[in-house]
Amino acid sequence: MGESEAIEGVYKVLVCDDEVRLGMLTAALLSDAGYEMTSVTDARSALAALEADAEIAAVVLDVNLGGDMSAIQFLVALAAADSQVSIVLASGLARWELPEELIGHPLVSGFVAKPFTEEQLVGGVKTAIAKAQA
Fold first, then answer.
1. Residue 42 to residue 74: CA distance in whole angstroms
2. Residue 2 domain flag
3. What angle, 0 to 180 degrees and rounded to 10, lies between the N-to-C axes of helices 118-133 and 20-32?
4. Which of 64, 24, 16 is nearest to 44 (CA)?
5. Which residues contact 105 (CB under 8 A, 6 or more apart)?
6. Mapping DSSP to helix (H, G, I), strand (E, B) and coil, where does residue 96 land?
7. What is the pLDDT confidence band of residue 8, given thresholds at 50, 70 and 90?
8. 14-72 pLDDT, tens digit each
9. Average pLDDT, rounded, for the chain
10. How much is the average pLDDT of 83-112?
11. Residue 3 falls inside a structural domain
12. What's 96's domain CATH number?
């Protein structure tokens, strides 16, 4: 299956970023690209959204989440729930600065460095969706 086949149709994407304005901007960019969007500000809300909507195909996850659950704890909880959703990490840190347990996690399919372009963001989400469908 080619990449264009893998991304046909409308897909739901969840944005999890504790910076509300950045989360809204990210969601708006993806909405403009044709995705159905949900946006939350913490990992526990993201887990609840994923549990409530099995059609979410990908998550754009801020690496430095505030709240009582870190990005790594979020990934561990997803794996324990046997989730197949694909994760795109987003961070102001460089990729090489991220811990291996985060960047190398089996659910993680990509990384976008903040500030990212719309092209980088959409490319990361397309890759995530293709991985989830494989």
1. 10
2. no
3. 70
4. 16
5. 72, 75, 79, 87
6. helix
7. low
8. 999 999 999 999 999 999 999 999 999 999 999 999 999 999 999 999 999 988 999 99
9. 92
10. 95
11. no
12. 3.40.50.2300
pLDDT mean over 83-100: 95
pLDDT for residue 102 is more than 50:
yes
- Provide the residue range defining the domain that includes 79: 11-133
Residues 12-26 as b/e (b if ≥16 CB within 10 A, e otherwise) read: bbbbbbeeeebbebb
Total tally of structural domains belonging to the chain: 1
Does residue 20 sit within a domain?
A: yes
One-letter amino acid identity for 97?
E
Nearest to 86 by CA among 104, 113, 110: 110
Pairing of strands 56-62, 36-40: unpaired
Flag whether 5 is in a domain.
Answer: no
How many C-alpha atoms does 37 have within 13 Å on its Cβ side?
20
> What ranges make up the beta strands (E) of the chain?
12-16, 36-40, 56-62, 86-91, 108-113
CA distance 102 to 58: 16
Q: Per-residue pLDDT for 2 more than 70?
A: no
Residues composing the chain: 134
